[in-house]
């Protein structure tokens, strides 16, 4: 907290010039266009499609073998489970 004593008053720190306001006005359409373009691009977000069941929640219970939580089938060697 001691550092605050050496800082100038807050009113001196905040200066919004006309150049800054002009830059914000010029940036607004560019930002809007970028947001519009972003919506058209593919996303890695997982969305639920029509007809698809939501994924089952995987939850570990004490004493449960960890292998039962894996979604991949057990590996086999010559037909025997490994």
Describe this structure in words.
This protein has helices at residues 10-13, 18-40; strands at 76-77, 80-81. Helix content is 33%, strand content 5%. It is elongated, with a radius of gyration of 29 Å. With 82 residues, the protein is mainly alpha-helical. A two-stranded antiparallel ribbon has the order 1-2.
Can you lay out the helices and strands and say which pair or pack?
Blueprint: H1 10-13, H2 18-40, E1 76-77, E2 80-81
Short description:
By secondary structure, the protein is mainly α. It contains two helices and two strands.
Structure keywords:
82 residues; mainly alpha; two-stranded antiparallel ribbon; 2 helices
User: How many strand elements?
Assistant: 2
Q: Residue share in helices?
A: 25-40%
What best-fitting shape do the alpha-carbon axes yield? elongated
- Rg calculated over all Cα atoms: 29 Å
Largest sheet strand order? 1-2
What structural category arises from helix and sheet content?
A: mainly alpha
Give the distance, in angstroms, between the N- and C-terminal Cα atoms.
62 Å
Question: What is the averaged pLDDT score?
Answer: 76
How can the largest sheet be summarized?
Answer: 2 strands, antiparallel
SSE string, helices as H and strands as E: HHEE
Relative strand content: under 5%
What is the tally of helical segments?
2
Low-confidence stretches: none
């Amino acid at each position: 907290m001691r550092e605050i004593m050496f800082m100038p008053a807050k009113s001196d720190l905040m200066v919004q010039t006309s150049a800054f306001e002009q830059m914000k006005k010029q940036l607004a359409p560019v930002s809007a266009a970028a947001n519009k373009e972003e919506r058209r691009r593919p996303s890695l977000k997982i969305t639920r499609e029509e007809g698809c069941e939501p994924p089952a929640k995987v939850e570990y219970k004490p004493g449960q073998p960890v292998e039962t939580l894996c979604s991949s089938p057990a590996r086999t060697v010559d037909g025997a489970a490994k």
